[in-house]
Design a protein that fits this description.
The chain is mainly alpha-helical and 289 residues long. Helices cover 71% and strands 0% of the residues.
Length: 289
Amino acid sequence: MALPVEIPDGRLVDLLGKAIRNRSFTVGLCITLAILAAAILSFAWTPYDVTALVIADKQQPPSLLHWFGTDHFGRDIASMIMVGARNSIAVALVAVGIGMGIGVPLGCLAAARGGVIDEALMRLNDLVFAFPALLSAVMITAVFGPGAVNAIIAIGIFNIPVFARVARAGALALWPREFILAARAAGKGKALITVEHILPNMVTLLMVQGTIQFALGILAEAGLSYVGLGTQPPMPSWGRMLFDAQTRMATAPWMAIFPGMAIAVTVLGLNLLGDGIADVLDPKLRRRR
């Protein structure tokens, strides 16, 4: 986990140069941008219509006409991966936004107030953290039915205690610092200090944790779709594609290989990006390496 770090003014160009020279950051950024580009492009164009069923072309191997082959309904797998990318990214992005938007203020509040409030919030966090995203999704879908929105809610709820713990740990490390003590001596309240000093100095910590949770969110969405609780047909999902391929590994292995590679490459890119951000923005980590 990266430690909170102050970024002095005028260092933007220097940090940009270090980021470009950092292989983990560069490779991770390129992979992430490529996946994002494919997802954005799918709104305007895909090689084939992902909802069109062409039974005559079912389970065709990869070729010039179908780069990644076709599935058991004759749908183009490359097109489905492109559309599935935007669904996975959208679910993970909103879920991480929910977790960060609620968890970070709760963590900062716990660190600032301490005592009974800190203890109560952390025990509530432990209670929420005891229910993984899959179990939360099962409970939510039992009431409201399966779907992408309910998957977002389930993953978002799971992310709240993660960001709350990270924000609390980062804030507790900052409160004894000299510049915080100076701000308190100047008469600033805890809320103003949190906004003006604590949060800006946790940007690195939250960025790194955000990329990690984003990758985990994509995995969680794929897992929920695999068991039928995430994105529903006819909209493609990487997890649903793997579910459809599990009984066809012997006859059409490409149905599982390419969606699996899409998930693995996306998660790898996000993890490399997070490591690169930590390397670039954390001076202590750079010195150790």
